[in-house]
Amino acid sequence: xxxxxxxxxxxxxxxxxxxxxxxxxxxxxxxxxxxxxxxxxxxxxxxxxxxxxxxxxxxxxxxxxxxxxxxxxxxxxxxxxxxxxxxxxxxxxxxxxxxxxxxxxxxxxxxxxxxxxxxxxxxxxxxxxxxxxxxxxxxxxxxxxxxxxxxxxxxxxxxxxxxxxxxxxxxxxxxxxxxxxxxxxxxxxxxxxxxxxxxxxxxxxxxxxxx
Length: 211
Known about the structure:
Strand content: under 5%
Shape: globular
Number of strands: 0
Order of helices and strands: HHHHHHHHH
Radius of gyration: 18 Å
């Protein structure tokens, strides 16, 4: 069951990412190199790519070594990143555009289906190994580096992948404030997730199998 679930996540992830890239190329308003850079400037794309790579790795590792145990801290971090993708989209971005056809399908896969499936996977297989609150610091490197990157690159390319960090429209102060709010929400979500894991591991006990 776990191996099949892992395969489904990997396949859906790669399908959605590749299809989104093709659609973006077909509707590009810039050169192919610039369009490619912009494609990989979306947190949604980078996070779903991380998910696809992780579950592909997990599938082949578990196939080669049935006793393989993944690091629950890594899975939890990926789950939090993906949850952020889903939450931010549903709350702040869903109303911004109305995709149609294949674009609608891919949009839902990236922002709704994948986050939901990853959370379900985590609930079944990623909540039995103890996790420390101190891990939030290392988990925060990715979203912090991402926000720094898009703000710095946007300052000379004038391309901001999301309206809530668009300095050209909001000004630098508001964009930085929004970025800080996102990081704060990430920390709160991380702390809440760790609290859930601690509660579950405390109830289950140390002899519970990690698969």
